[in-house]
Design a protein that fits this description.
Shape: globular
CATH class of the largest domain: Alpha Beta
CATH superfamily of the largest domain: Bira Bifunctional Protein, Domain 2
Structural class: alpha+beta
Number of helices: 15
CATH architecture of the largest domain: 2-Layer Sandwich
Bound molecules: glycyl-adenosine-5'-phosphate
Oligomer: single chain
CATH topology of the largest domain: BirA Bifunctional Protein, domain 2
Number of strands: 24
Helix content: 25-40%
Radius of gyration: 26 Å
Length: 476
């Protein structure tokens, strides 16, 4: 059953995420702050696993990609060169009645209005006379205006125009600005890539859909520099690679689609763009954009900084400004997609396989309800839980703790000795731990343990000295 067909509602998921320590509202004790989220003990492990999987596959496993870690605040000229100061805007409409602020395109969608064919915000999203605010019903909607999404700050003690700086709205511009230094120090040759993971900030007019559109989020971006004219083949290559990657972290093939931009939708400098989309419960939405951006960014930085961004190919004596293909993904959106995909409510009979629970209903006689997060082991926050069968038997506790201490050297593990064993399994199911190991009285006799797999709930008996090898094989 795919996520779209499942009983998942975002309320259920948000409630589990809060209850079990995946995601909390930022500044909750002060009433929260819109568009900002905190990741709890399990959420930060999940995010770390996403970053690690990306870094492993995009940087460490490749000889043609190197990493970079730039500052969040950079010289403000970077954002002039990139076009963000002048053009990184969303169209905005206010209601003078209730003071609610709308993103114009979302308001038009909500009201069933069609934007006019114009590149000017004021014409494109001009609301027809008499249009009512969907929140309060008043007819006092303002003219649309462009709102710049960059967060402004000041560097140093003076707070005037000369000290204005911006929190980066994307990580990629740091990569372009450091292109020359990386090229000079890394011994890479075109084609090669520079990768960066880090925070980005956008003052979104209307943050929504839980963490999907936030004001502070994290990006994982690769700028892959190529010879002009090879754009299409490298773009195709990266789209295929990135789709495979989503499957490697456990998102099913059928939940991922591509949105291929028409020529008319592309920025003037881009030759291709594909968004990788996931079927969230609130609709099919973007996880990552993969754009062939020509040499727009490097050329602009060359123009604005006066520093050459040219690449010299010693073998062919050619000089050129490299073109770039940019796969740009969001950690938080991927975390949300993994959480949505993992969430399942089931009814389990005494014997036999589980069946999907029916929304809002109690399980039938003889069935037990369970919530299970079916994370792929690669991204599961906790990989193995270790239990002694009984907590008041020191020999079981000692053996379990020794095993726990051995396993935690390799994987994030959890030790739990409280409650009935069935309840302990359920607790681990609910946080998505793929494997549980139980130490019981037989263990003391024959040095075997019970290894239980989360999804099938199947248990096998296995010698302790084979456990690490078995777990390693099952981690995938
Ligand atoms: N350098 C290209 C760039 O930034 P983008 O499509 O604006 O492109 C790339 O952003 C990715 O960053 C998106 O696909 C999404 O995963 C993530 N992202 C963008 N805005 C976001 C937001 N407000 N909240 C969460 N993630 C966001």
């Amino acid at each position: 059953m795919s996520t779209a067909e499942s009983i998942l509602s975002m309320e259920h998921l948000a409630s589990l995420c809060k209850r079990r320590g995946f995601i909390f509202q930022s500044s909750e004790i002060y009433g929260g702050i819109n568009g900002f989220w905190d990741y709890g003990p399990l959420g930060c492990e999940l995010k770390r696993n996403i970053r690690d999987a990306w870094w492993q596959d995009m940087v460490r496993d490749r000889e043609d990609v190197v990493g970079l870690d730039c500052s969040i605040i950079m010289h403000p000229r970077i954002w002039e060169a990139s076009g963000h100061v002048g053009g990184f805007t969303d169209p905005m409409i206010d209601c003078r009645g209730c003071k609610k602020r709308f993103r114009a395109d979302q308001l038009f969608e909500e009201l069933g209005l069609k934007p006019a064919e114009s590149t000017k915000v004021e014409e494109k999203f001009k609301v027809p006379e008499g249009t009512k605010c969907p929140a309060c019903g008043s007819k006092e909607l303002t003219e649309p205006r462009a709102f710049n999404l960059m967060f402004k700050t000041f560097v140093g003690p003076l707070q005037d125009e000369s000290s204005v700086a911006y929190l980066r709205p994307e990580t990629s511009q740091g990569i372009f600005a450091q292109f020359g230094n990386v090229l000079a120090t890394s011994r890479q040759k075109v084609p090669f890539g520079i990768a960066q993971i880090g925070k980005a900030f956008r003052n979104e007019i209307n943050p929504r859909n839980y963490t999907f559109r936030s004001r502070e989020f994290e990006q994982m971006e690769l700028e892959f520099f190529i010879k002009p004219g090879t754009d299409q083949e490298w773009h195709n290559y990266w789209v295929a690679e990135r789709i495979k990657w989503y499957q490697s972290i456990g998102l099913p093939k059928e939940s991922i689609t591509q949105y291929v931009y028409d020529k008319a939708e592309l920025a003037h400098y881009a030759s291709a763009c594909v968004d990788i989309m996931y079927a969230f419960p609130f609709g099919i939405q973007e996880l990552e954009g993969i754009a062939a951006r020509g040499n727009f960014d490097l050329s602009r930085h060359q123009e604005f900084s006066g520093k050459s961004m040219e690449y010299f190919n010693q073998e062919t004596n050619e000089k050129f400004i490299p073109h770039v293909v940019e796969p740009s993904a969001g950690v938080d959106r991927i975390a949300l997609a993994l959480l949505c995909n993992a969430y399942h409510e089931e009814w389990i009979p005494k014997d036999g396989p589980a069946i999907p629970a029916e929304p809002g209903k109690q399980p039938p006689e003889g069935f037990e309800a369970r919530t299970v997060m079916r994370f792929a082991p690669r991204v599961a926050p906790i990989k193995v839980a270790v239990f002694p069968l009984l907590k008041n038997k020191p020999e079981l506790v000692d053996k379990s703790r020794a095993l726990f201490n051995t396993l935690r050297r390799h994987w994030p593990c959890f030790y739990d000795q409280t409650g009935a064993i069935g309840r302990r399994y359920r607790r681990q199911d609910e946080i998505g731990t793929p494997f549980c190991v139980t130490v019981d009285f037989d263990t003391l006799q024959d040095n075997t343990v019970t290894l239980r797999e989360r999804d099938s709930m199947k248990q096998i008996r296995i010698p302790i000295d084979q456990l690490e090898t078995e777990l390693l094989a099952r981690m995938g």
